[in-house]
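INFO batch 0412 | record 1 of 1 | parsing
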Amino acid sequence: MWPLSPSSAFLLLAIVVPSDCYLNRGFTQWFHWAAIYYSLTQWQFLERFQILSGCSICLGWYASLVYEFVQHGRFCHPLYKNMPTSLMQFYLRDVEGNGSTQGQQMLDFESTKALLALTMAHILDLLAHPLLTYYFWRRHTTKGGTIKQVVAWPVIAAAYLYSRLWSLTHTKYNTGNFDLWYFGFDIYVMDSLDSWYPAYIAETCFYGGIIILKLNEIWSKKPLHANAKKDCFETKPKLLLSESSVSIESHSS
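INFO prediction complete | emitting C-alpha coordinates
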Protein backbone atom coordinates (compact mmCIF):
# COMPACT_ATOMS: atom_id res chain seq x y z
CA MET A 1 0.00 0.00 0.00
CA TRP A 2 2.78 2.43 0.87
CA PRO A 3 4.60 4.07 -0.71
CA LEU A 4 2.02 4.83 -3.36
CA SER A 5 2.78 4.87 -7.04
CA PRO A 6 3.20 8.40 -8.48
CA SER A 7 -0.03 8.12 -10.48
CA SER A 8 -2.04 6.86 -7.47
CA ALA A 9 -0.69 9.62 -5.22
CA PHE A 10 -1.49 12.28 -7.83
CA LEU A 11 -5.03 10.97 -8.20
CA LEU A 12 -5.48 10.93 -4.43
CA LEU A 13 -4.33 14.53 -4.03
CA ALA A 14 -6.45 15.66 -6.98
CA ILE A 15 -9.54 14.20 -5.30
CA VAL A 16 -8.85 15.19 -1.70
CA VAL A 17 -7.24 18.64 -2.00
CA PRO A 18 -9.68 21.50 -2.75
CA SER A 19 -8.73 23.98 -5.45
CA ASP A 20 -8.42 26.93 -3.06
CA CYS A 21 -5.43 25.15 -1.49
CA TYR A 22 -3.37 25.62 -4.66
CA LEU A 23 -5.07 28.38 -6.66
CA ASN A 24 -3.90 31.89 -5.78
CA ARG A 25 -1.32 30.34 -3.51
CA GLY A 26 2.37 31.13 -3.53
CA PHE A 27 4.94 28.97 -5.25
CA THR A 28 6.25 28.02 -1.80
CA GLN A 29 2.94 26.28 -1.11
CA TRP A 30 3.26 24.38 -4.39
CA PHE A 31 6.72 23.40 -3.15
CA HIS A 32 5.09 22.10 0.03
CA TRP A 33 2.48 20.15 -1.94
CA ALA A 34 5.33 18.55 -3.88
CA ALA A 35 6.88 17.62 -0.52
CA ILE A 36 3.63 15.94 0.53
CA TYR A 37 3.54 14.17 -2.82
CA TYR A 38 7.07 12.94 -2.15
CA SER A 39 6.10 11.67 1.32
CA LEU A 40 3.35 9.58 -0.31
CA THR A 41 5.52 8.16 -3.08
CA GLN A 42 9.15 8.24 -1.83
CA TRP A 43 10.02 8.89 -5.46
CA GLN A 44 13.78 9.56 -5.66
CA PHE A 45 13.49 11.72 -8.75
CA LEU A 46 11.16 14.02 -6.81
CA GLU A 47 13.74 14.20 -4.03
CA ARG A 48 16.26 15.71 -6.47
CA PHE A 49 13.53 17.86 -7.99
CA GLN A 50 12.76 19.34 -4.57
CA ILE A 51 16.39 20.26 -4.00
CA LEU A 52 16.54 22.34 -7.18
CA SER A 53 13.08 23.86 -6.64
CA GLY A 54 13.91 24.71 -3.05
CA CYS A 55 17.18 26.40 -4.00
CA SER A 56 15.48 28.49 -6.70
CA ILE A 57 12.68 29.48 -4.29
CA CYS A 58 15.16 30.53 -1.60
CA LEU A 59 17.18 32.61 -4.06
CA GLY A 60 14.11 34.29 -5.52
CA TRP A 61 12.42 34.93 -2.18
CA TYR A 62 15.45 36.40 -0.43
CA ALA A 63 16.40 38.40 -3.51
CA SER A 64 12.99 40.08 -3.27
CA LEU A 65 13.41 40.76 0.45
CA VAL A 66 16.83 42.34 -0.12
CA TYR A 67 15.45 44.42 -3.00
CA GLU A 68 12.54 45.62 -0.85
CA PHE A 69 14.94 46.82 1.83
CA VAL A 70 17.54 48.40 -0.47
CA GLN A 71 15.11 50.03 -2.89
CA HIS A 72 12.19 50.95 -0.62
CA GLY A 73 13.56 50.71 2.91
CA ARG A 74 10.99 48.05 3.85
CA PHE A 75 12.53 45.37 6.06
CA CYS A 76 10.93 41.97 5.33
CA HIS A 77 7.48 43.46 4.70
CA PRO A 78 6.51 40.71 2.21
CA LEU A 79 7.38 38.13 4.85
CA TYR A 80 5.48 39.77 7.70
CA LYS A 81 2.41 40.63 5.63
CA ASN A 82 1.96 37.12 4.24
CA MET A 83 1.97 35.20 7.50
CA PRO A 84 -1.17 33.53 8.93
CA THR A 85 -3.74 35.97 10.33
CA SER A 86 -3.40 34.40 13.77
CA LEU A 87 0.21 35.62 13.82
CA MET A 88 -0.19 38.96 12.03
CA GLN A 89 -2.72 40.19 14.58
CA PHE A 90 0.12 40.66 17.06
CA TYR A 91 2.24 43.01 14.94
CA LEU A 92 -0.13 44.71 12.47
CA ARG A 93 -1.98 47.78 13.73
CA ASP A 94 -4.31 50.24 12.04
CA VAL A 95 -2.94 53.60 10.94
CA GLU A 96 -4.64 56.50 12.67
CA GLY A 97 -5.78 59.33 10.45
CA ASN A 98 -8.03 60.19 7.53
CA GLY A 99 -7.66 60.44 3.80
CA SER A 100 -5.25 58.17 1.95
CA THR A 101 -3.98 56.51 5.15
CA GLN A 102 -7.41 55.54 6.38
CA GLY A 103 -7.87 51.76 6.59
CA GLN A 104 -4.17 51.05 6.13
CA GLN A 105 -2.06 49.02 8.53
CA MET A 106 1.50 49.39 9.74
CA LEU A 107 3.97 47.05 11.38
CA ASP A 108 4.63 47.29 15.09
CA PHE A 109 8.33 46.93 15.92
CA GLU A 110 8.06 48.12 19.53
CA SER A 111 5.81 45.93 21.69
CA THR A 112 7.08 42.66 23.13
CA LYS A 113 4.20 40.65 21.66
CA ALA A 114 4.89 42.08 18.23
CA LEU A 115 8.61 41.31 18.39
CA LEU A 116 7.93 37.74 19.49
CA ALA A 117 5.45 37.29 16.64
CA LEU A 118 7.93 38.76 14.15
CA THR A 119 10.57 36.34 15.42
CA MET A 120 8.12 33.47 14.92
CA ALA A 121 7.56 34.67 11.34
CA HIS A 122 11.29 34.32 10.67
CA ILE A 123 11.34 30.84 12.22
CA LEU A 124 8.45 29.74 10.00
CA ASP A 125 10.24 31.26 7.02
CA LEU A 126 13.39 29.25 7.75
CA LEU A 127 11.36 26.06 8.17
CA ALA A 128 9.37 26.61 4.97
CA HIS A 129 12.28 27.52 2.71
CA PRO A 130 15.95 26.67 3.44
CA LEU A 131 15.45 24.00 6.11
CA LEU A 132 12.95 22.03 4.03
CA THR A 133 15.34 22.24 1.08
CA TYR A 134 18.18 21.08 3.30
CA TYR A 135 16.04 18.16 4.49
CA PHE A 136 15.78 16.85 0.93
CA TRP A 137 19.50 17.41 0.38
CA ARG A 138 20.35 15.41 3.51
CA ARG A 139 18.07 12.57 2.48
CA HIS A 140 19.68 12.52 -0.94
CA THR A 141 23.29 12.51 0.28
CA THR A 142 22.64 10.06 3.13
CA LYS A 143 21.59 7.49 0.55
CA GLY A 144 24.77 8.08 -1.44
CA GLY A 145 23.33 10.63 -3.85
CA THR A 146 25.56 13.14 -5.60
CA ILE A 147 25.24 16.70 -6.84
CA LYS A 148 25.62 15.37 -10.39
CA GLN A 149 22.34 13.46 -9.98
CA VAL A 150 20.61 16.61 -8.73
CA VAL A 151 21.64 18.71 -11.74
CA ALA A 152 20.78 16.06 -14.33
CA TRP A 153 18.97 17.42 -17.38
CA PRO A 154 15.57 15.82 -16.58
CA VAL A 155 15.64 17.26 -13.05
CA ILE A 156 16.54 20.75 -14.29
CA ALA A 157 13.76 20.65 -16.88
CA ALA A 158 11.14 19.38 -14.43
CA ALA A 159 11.98 21.92 -11.71
CA TYR A 160 11.98 24.89 -14.09
CA LEU A 161 8.80 23.79 -15.87
CA TYR A 162 7.07 23.40 -12.49
CA SER A 163 7.76 27.07 -11.81
CA ARG A 164 6.46 28.05 -15.22
CA LEU A 165 3.36 25.89 -14.67
CA TRP A 166 2.67 27.89 -11.51
CA SER A 167 2.86 31.14 -13.50
CA LEU A 168 0.77 29.80 -16.38
CA THR A 169 -1.90 28.58 -13.97
CA HIS A 170 -2.21 31.86 -12.11
CA THR A 171 -2.05 34.18 -15.09
CA LYS A 172 -4.83 32.17 -16.73
CA TYR A 173 -6.85 32.00 -13.51
CA ASN A 174 -6.59 35.73 -12.76
CA THR A 175 -6.35 37.37 -16.19
CA GLY A 176 -7.73 34.80 -18.62
CA ASN A 177 -4.45 34.73 -20.56
CA PHE A 178 -1.42 32.47 -20.33
CA ASP A 179 1.91 34.01 -19.40
CA LEU A 180 5.19 32.42 -18.38
CA TRP A 181 5.76 34.95 -15.59
CA TYR A 182 3.05 36.04 -13.20
CA PHE A 183 2.84 39.62 -11.94
CA GLY A 184 -0.01 40.73 -9.71
CA PHE A 185 -1.50 41.35 -6.28
CA ASP A 186 -3.78 38.30 -6.28
CA ILE A 187 -1.46 35.94 -4.40
CA TYR A 188 0.81 37.92 -2.09
CA VAL A 189 0.17 41.05 -0.05
CA MET A 190 2.66 43.44 -1.64
CA ASP A 191 3.33 47.17 -1.63
CA SER A 192 4.54 47.24 -5.25
CA LEU A 193 4.84 44.87 -8.20
CA ASP A 194 8.49 45.60 -8.93
CA SER A 195 9.51 43.10 -6.23
CA TRP A 196 8.61 40.29 -8.63
CA TYR A 197 11.56 41.16 -10.86
CA PRO A 198 14.44 40.21 -8.53
CA ALA A 199 12.72 36.89 -7.80
CA TYR A 200 12.45 35.96 -11.47
CA ILE A 201 15.94 37.28 -12.24
CA ALA A 202 17.45 35.21 -9.42
CA GLU A 203 15.58 32.11 -10.60
CA THR A 204 16.71 32.61 -14.19
CA CYS A 205 20.34 33.14 -13.13
CA PHE A 206 20.18 30.00 -11.00
CA TYR A 207 18.95 27.68 -13.73
CA GLY A 208 20.91 29.50 -16.43
CA GLY A 209 24.12 29.16 -14.41
CA ILE A 210 23.61 25.42 -13.96
CA ILE A 211 22.94 24.96 -17.68
CA ILE A 212 26.05 26.97 -18.64
CA LEU A 213 28.23 24.91 -16.28
CA LYS A 214 26.86 21.66 -17.67
CA LEU A 215 27.39 22.76 -21.27
CA ASN A 216 30.91 23.90 -20.44
CA GLU A 217 31.62 20.49 -18.93
CA ILE A 218 30.40 18.79 -22.10
CA TRP A 219 32.46 21.05 -24.38
CA SER A 220 35.61 20.70 -22.28
CA LYS A 221 35.45 16.92 -22.72
CA LYS A 222 35.09 17.17 -26.52
CA PRO A 223 38.34 18.47 -28.15
CA LEU A 224 38.21 20.41 -31.39
CA HIS A 225 38.82 18.46 -34.61
CA ALA A 226 42.14 20.18 -35.26
CA ASN A 227 43.41 19.54 -31.79
CA ALA A 228 42.32 15.93 -32.03
CA LYS A 229 44.33 15.42 -35.23
CA LYS A 230 47.34 17.14 -33.71
CA ASP A 231 47.19 15.00 -30.58
CA CYS A 232 46.85 11.87 -32.70
CA PHE A 233 49.89 12.83 -34.80
CA GLU A 234 52.04 13.63 -31.78
CA THR A 235 51.30 10.30 -30.15
CA LYS A 236 52.58 8.28 -33.14
CA PRO A 237 56.08 6.72 -32.64
CA LYS A 238 58.83 8.41 -34.60
CA LEU A 239 61.04 6.23 -36.89
CA LEU A 240 64.58 7.37 -36.14
CA LEU A 241 66.55 4.62 -37.99
CA SER A 242 65.01 2.14 -40.40
CA GLU A 243 66.34 -1.35 -41.15
CA SER A 244 66.78 -0.47 -44.84
CA SER A 245 69.11 2.40 -44.04
CA VAL A 246 71.18 0.15 -41.79
CA SER A 247 71.55 -2.50 -44.52
CA ILE A 248 72.63 0.08 -47.13
CA GLU A 249 75.27 1.47 -44.84
CA SER A 250 76.64 -2.03 -44.11
CA HIS A 251 76.88 -2.96 -47.84
CA SER A 252 78.58 0.28 -48.76
CA SER A 253 81.19 -0.28 -46.12
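INFO post-check: Confidence is low (pLDDT under 50) at residues 224-229, 248-253.
INFO record closed
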